[in-house]
Amino acid sequence: QIQFADDMQEFTKFPTKTGRRSLSRSISQSSTDSYSSAASYTDSSDDEVSPREKQQTNSKGSSNFCVKNIKQAEFGRREIEIAEQDMSALISLRKRAQGEKPLAGAKIVGCTHITAQTAVLIETLCALGAQCRWSACNIYSTQNEVAAALAEAGVAVFAWKGESEDDFWWCIDRCVNMDGWQANMILDDGGDLTHWVYKKYPNVFKKIRGIVEESVTGVHRLYQLSKAGKLCVPAMNVNDSVTKQKFDNLYCCRESILDGLKRTTDVMFGGKQVVVCGYGEVGKGCCAALKALGAIVYITEIDPICALQACMDGFRVVKLNEVIRQVDVVITCTGNKNVVTREHLDRMKNSCIVCNMGHSNTEIDVTSLRTPELTWERVRSQVDHVIWPDGKRVVLLAEGRLLNLSCSTVPTFVLSITATTQALALIELYNAPEGRYKQDVYLLPKKMDEYVASLHLPSFDAHLTELTDDQAKYLGLNKNGPFKPNYY
């Protein structure tokens, strides 16, 4: 007969309250907690000195940057070199165009995730003649060693993992407000940089030739400005280009959603009930991955077309209130705000995992959880247990910020597609003759979308079929493209 432990209490003990932190801490304080991430191997979590208080110089004596630790540059250079191996199209563009320097004279101020993949983009822009100043669009997504490598290479980068809200805006301000340096191009991800320039330095727009924006949130802001007649420069909507929507939003999220959840929670997906809020391209990618591993997936949608797609793909479309008590995981990817409210959080089951795959941290009402009756317990990097008075706990990831780039990494190859699209959009806006683009929001020309795709086909040894003259005439197409209308 199998012998069990005499003291059965060993199996029924509740966790002690040791180590729990009071929720009276402010949002900015909680944002400054410095934890290492699997995506940032050289991060030092025991260094509590703010990078803003450090005096650092690179090997050339320049101090025109602010990063966690410039000594990590060698590690970051290796990360960038590894990323280059899977970003052959961007490297190809760099080699093809660096002779003619299409961005000579361009002064680009950027606000994106600062990862090894973004570094390849930044260094490509520099190789094409641009000067760059860069900050992070997310307080958790910066890879510190990569930021150090960029600073060592001479890029004015202001970013580190675990910035406070104040640090975040300070870094953006340092990029824009530089004596003797005036930006003439903006590359934004989320619209925060554009917002800051409008708010603090509107005169900068007198020299700006264009804005390139790659997120749903940022594009929404640009259309709002345009509708109000306040957009004073041309803007390129990269987010709605085919090469961003159909690849980055779909395939990137299909792979990285599982990575982010596994690294933070070790959750097993088979049989779990998951609700995904939003069935756009990001939602489609997340659902495909979860379904493949045996999860039971529900969808919430406001759009009848997306809802019908979800139904045809075999998912049940519900209202969040209908399933909130039974689901094990809640994932938001709508680009909206207050999708998951305090009422929803109060009704969740014990140990429900809550996370966001949209760009902005507005989808989950995290602010409503910062009340005295709730206790927050940091259990891992970017993992908090929010504990109710009755002992129920909700597992909140990255404090409601973007899960994949905050808690894991994203596939390099897919980011090559988006980065190449961004580079071409910058080249197009910077070199466009005066009058081609008005003060409005534009989609990337379809021919450019197809060029980006063609640059990536050699990686798969893919061979395109060419139309005959007769076939091209029959379809009413140029045999060299574009093959799809601009509205596609």
From TrEMBL:
<keyword id="KW-0378">Hydrolase</keyword>
<feature type="domain" description="S-adenosyl-L-homocysteine hydrolase NAD binding">
    <location>
        <begin position="249"/>
        <end position="410"/>
    </location>
</feature>
<comment type="pathway">
    <text>Amino-acid biosynthesis; L-homocysteine biosynthesis; L-homocysteine from S-adenosyl-L-homocysteine: step 1/1.</text>
</comment>
<feature type="binding site">
    <location>
        <begin position="280"/>
        <end position="285"/>
    </location>
    <ligand>
        <name>NAD(+)</name>
    </ligand>
</feature>
<feature type="binding site">
    <location>
        <position position="404"/>
    </location>
    <ligand>
        <name>NAD(+)</name>
    </ligand>
</feature>
<feature type="binding site">
    <location>
        <position position="214"/>
    </location>
    <ligand>
        <name>substrate</name>
    </ligand>
</feature>
<feature type="region of interest" description="Disordered">
    <location>
        <begin position="1"/>
        <end position="63"/>
    </location>
</feature>
<dbReference type="GO" id="GO:0006730">
    <property type="term" value="P:one-carbon metabolic process"/>
</dbReference>
<dbReference type="GO" id="GO:0004013">
    <property type="term" value="F:adenosylhomocysteinase activity"/>
</dbReference>
<feature type="binding site">
    <location>
        <position position="189"/>
    </location>
    <ligand>
        <name>substrate</name>
    </ligand>
</feature>
<dbReference type="Pfam" id="PF05221">
    <property type="entry name" value="AdoHcyase"/>
</dbReference>
<dbReference type="InterPro" id="IPR015878">
    <property type="entry name" value="Ado_hCys_hydrolase_NAD-bd"/>
</dbReference>
<feature type="binding site">
    <location>
        <position position="248"/>
    </location>
    <ligand>
        <name>substrate</name>
    </ligand>
</feature>
<feature type="binding site">
    <location>
        <position position="244"/>
    </location>
    <ligand>
        <name>substrate</name>
    </ligand>
</feature>
<keyword id="KW-0554">One-carbon metabolism</keyword>
<feature type="binding site">
    <location>
        <position position="301"/>
    </location>
    <ligand>
        <name>NAD(+)</name>
    </ligand>
</feature>
<dbReference type="InterPro" id="IPR042172">
    <property type="entry name" value="Adenosylhomocyst_ase-like_sf"/>
</dbReference>
<dbReference type="InterPro" id="IPR020082">
    <property type="entry name" value="S-Ado-L-homoCys_hydrolase_CS"/>
</dbReference>
<comment type="similarity">
    <text>Belongs to the adenosylhomocysteinase family.</text>
</comment>
<protein>
    <recommendedName>
        <fullName>Adenosylhomocysteinase</fullName>
        <ecNumber>3.13.2.1</ecNumber>
    </recommendedName>
</protein>
<keyword id="KW-0520">NAD</keyword>
<feature type="binding site">
    <location>
        <position position="115"/>
    </location>
    <ligand>
        <name>substrate</name>
    </ligand>
</feature>
<dbReference type="GO" id="GO:0033353">
    <property type="term" value="P:S-adenosylmethionine cycle"/>
</dbReference>
<feature type="compositionally biased region" description="Low complexity">
    <location>
        <begin position="24"/>
        <end position="43"/>
    </location>
</feature>
<dbReference type="InterPro" id="IPR036291">
    <property type="entry name" value="NAD(P)-bd_dom_sf"/>
</dbReference>
<dbReference type="Pfam" id="PF00670">
    <property type="entry name" value="AdoHcyase_NAD"/>
</dbReference>
<dbReference type="GO" id="GO:0005829">
    <property type="term" value="C:cytosol"/>
</dbReference>
<dbReference type="InterPro" id="IPR000043">
    <property type="entry name" value="Adenosylhomocysteinase-like"/>
</dbReference>
